[in-house]
């Protein structure tokens, strides 16, 4: 959080004039017809015009052209994220189903009789599969990430994708790193307080993803996925491919869009709310300090706050869990107030300096983005309803 606001770096591509969406005609230009002209070659004689029958092109106002540009800009990276999420979830279901059938076949002694055990020992089979969720998660999300890499290998293989191009990323200092760590604890504290207040009012926010995680075996494969592989892949997808693709259209827009899709990706109301707030912090860190630092912060949240410290507190039973929750609240609230008191003015200045041109958020009407939001929203609603009812 540098008190001096440097000129916005050209990350990851060219930027636009203030108030102008890249590629959109200005209000003084004629309507955009979708047929860009070609500049003449100096010294050449233009050929005689030939009457070529053309279908009339629909007239587009500058506002309509800007909206169309934004829909195209958002549609492709949103489609890539949707493909990754669908492949990862589908592979997880397939691998889990195969593991369950293998367990049932082993229990029955006859693969032909495995179907008879599905209803009789479904709970036992589910418990058996959860013992291998670490391996299943590593396999399914790893394959999905490999497909993503193949689709965006030129982008991902660049050094600047990970550490920022020369002169663009700020240098992380210890004091700023500490501020980001405190904001991560503050995000944890806010939702601990929210859950506590709602529980006192008789409303328990149930997190299906956390319940499924607690049912999984605490194996080294699961710890590897939660603490390292998962954060790396999620940062690669959301703060890397998605956010960097949208950065030329406004930093605020890119950070908010990636945070929203990151929240919906969790398919869980409780985790989604937390993921949105964390997505804003991670997005700012990746935008200004590089993807490597957002990965480090994500690993800290998953491996340290949600892993080592949480498990150590849980070893003392309910008293340990309560003490850990209280410590998160105290450190998070006090630390968060201190960070906002010191840097609140800079945060507001950053927000104002990186506002997107009018019409940028029309990109959210892109078909693949809407498909992602609808499918993820349905998954969130179904999982939350099932947790509440059952």
From TrEMBL:
Residues 1-11, 37-56 have a biased composition (Pro residues). This is CPBP family intramembrane metalloprotease. The chain crosses the membrane at residues 80-105, 125-151, 180-202, 273-292, 299-317, 323-341, 361-389. Signal peptide: none annotated. GO terms for biological process: CAAX-box protein maturation; proteolysis. Residues 1-61 are annotated as: Disordered. Keywords: Hydrolase, Membrane, Metalloprotease, Protease, Transmembrane, Transmembrane helix. One of its GO terms (molecular function) is endopeptidase activity. Pfam families: Rce1-like (PF02517). InterPro entries: CAAX_protease, Rce1/LyrA-like_dom. It comes from Bifidobacterium vespertilionis. Residues 22-36 have a biased composition (Low complexity). Residues 220-304 form the CAAX prenyl protease 2/Lysostaphin resistance protein A-like domain.
């Amino acid at each position: 959080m540098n008190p001096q606001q440097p000129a916005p770096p050209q990350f990851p591509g060219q930027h636009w004039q203030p108030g102008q969406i890249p590629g959109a005609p200005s209000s003084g230009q004629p309507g955009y017809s979708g047929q860009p002209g070609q500049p003449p070659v100096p010294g050449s004689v233009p050929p005689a015009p030939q009457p070529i029958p053309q279908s009339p092109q629909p007239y587009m106002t500058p506002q309509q052209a800007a909206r169309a540009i934004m829909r195209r800009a958002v549609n492709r990276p949103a489609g890539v994220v949707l493909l990754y999420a669908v492949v990862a979830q589908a592979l997880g279901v397939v691998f889990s189903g195969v593991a369950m059938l293998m367990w049932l076949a082993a229990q029955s002694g006859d693969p032909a009789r495995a179907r008879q055990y599905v209803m009789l020992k479904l709970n036992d089979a589910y418990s058996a599969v959860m013992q291998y969720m670490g391996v299943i998660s590593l396999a399914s999300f790893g394959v999905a990430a490999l497909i993503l890499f193949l689709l965006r290998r030129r982008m991902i293989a660049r050094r600047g994708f990970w550490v920022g191009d020369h002169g663009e990323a700020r240098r992380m200092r210890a004091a700023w790193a500490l501020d980001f760590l405190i904001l991560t604890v503050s995000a944890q504290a806010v939702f601990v307080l929210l859950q506590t207040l709602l529980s006192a009012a008789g409303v328990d926010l149930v997190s299906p993803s956390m319940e499924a995680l607690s049912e999984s075996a605490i194996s080294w494969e699961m710890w590897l996925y939660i603490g390292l592989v998962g954060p790396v892949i999620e940062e690669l997808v959301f703060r890397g491919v998605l956010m960097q693709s949208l950065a030329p259209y406004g930093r605020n827009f890119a950070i908010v869009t990636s945070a929203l899709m990151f929240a919906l990706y969790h398919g869980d109301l409780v985790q989604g709310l937390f993921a949105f707030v964390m997505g804003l912090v991670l997005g700012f860190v990746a935008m200004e300090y590089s993807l490597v630092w957002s990965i480090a912060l994500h690993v800290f949240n998953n491996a340290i706050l949600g892993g080592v410290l949480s498990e150590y507190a849980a070893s003392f039973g309910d008293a340990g869990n309560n003490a850990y929750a209280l410590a998160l609240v105290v450190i998070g609230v006090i630390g968060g107030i201190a960070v906002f008191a010191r840097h609140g003015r800079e945060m507001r200045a950053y927000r104002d300096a990186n506002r997107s041109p009018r019409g940028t958020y029309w990109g959210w009407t892109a078909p693949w983005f809407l498909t992602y939001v609808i499918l993820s929203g349905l998954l969130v609603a179904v999982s939350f309803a099932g947790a509440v009812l059952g």
